[in-house]
Amino acid sequence: MKLSLEDLVAKVNEWCDANAVSPASGQVANSLSVRTLRYYRTLGLLDAPSSGAGAGYEEHHFLQVAAVRVLQSQGLPQNRIQSLLFGRSDKELRKILEHSDAGIPAASRATRAQAFPSSESWHMTPITDEFLLVARRHSRVTAEALKRIREILTQSTSTTNRTH
């Protein structure tokens, strides 16, 4: 597959539409443009085309841009996306796409999206280096409860580490 930059934009936009992948909370535009992909090139999110003849974009380039869109849909900041995607192989990029909402039927995604209206406010509390507690803004966990949760997680992870 050899694509022009315009064709790559169209292919990724089509894939995103078909899989209901769109950036979270207005982070970036809903549709890609040629200008956006040129910007991704300057950031190192998109590799250089394989040829300079205008149609040097291939499957790897598609996977790179689709992975960027998937991670944007999860609300990740650009610097985190750059660090996650730098130097990834096609196999690794496909894994990102496979483990995203892209594989979930559109009806299921729509139902799940309606469960959390965008007007709701959520609060995140780090529990340990590996766990995060997410709750509605008005729901607070007491210091005692956080201490107990940390103890449970510490016991659970130390038991798991001993068995592996």
Which descriptors apply to this entry?
about 160 residues, 2 strands, two-stranded antiparallel ribbon, elongated, mainly alpha, 2 domains, single chain
What order do the helices and strands come in, and which of them pair?
Elements: H1 5-18, H2 34-43, H3 59-73, H4 78-85, H5 90-98, H6 106-115, E1 122-126, E2 132-136, H7 143-163
Antiparallel strand pairs: 1-2
Written account of the structure:
With 164 residues, the protein is mainly alpha-helical. It folds into 2 domains: 5-115, no CATH class; 122-163, no CATH class. It is 53% helix and 6% strand. It has 7 helices and 2 strands. The chain has helices at residues 5-18, 34-43, 59-73, 78-85, 90-98, 106-115, 143-163, and strands at 122-126, 132-136. It has a two-stranded antiparallel sheet. The longest helix is centred in the C-terminal third of the chain and has 21 residues, at 143-163. 18% of the residues are buried. Mean pLDDT is 79; it is low at 103-116.
Short description:
The chain has helices at residues 5-18, 34-43, 59-73, 78-85, 90-98, 106-115, 143-163; strands spanning 122-126, 132-136.
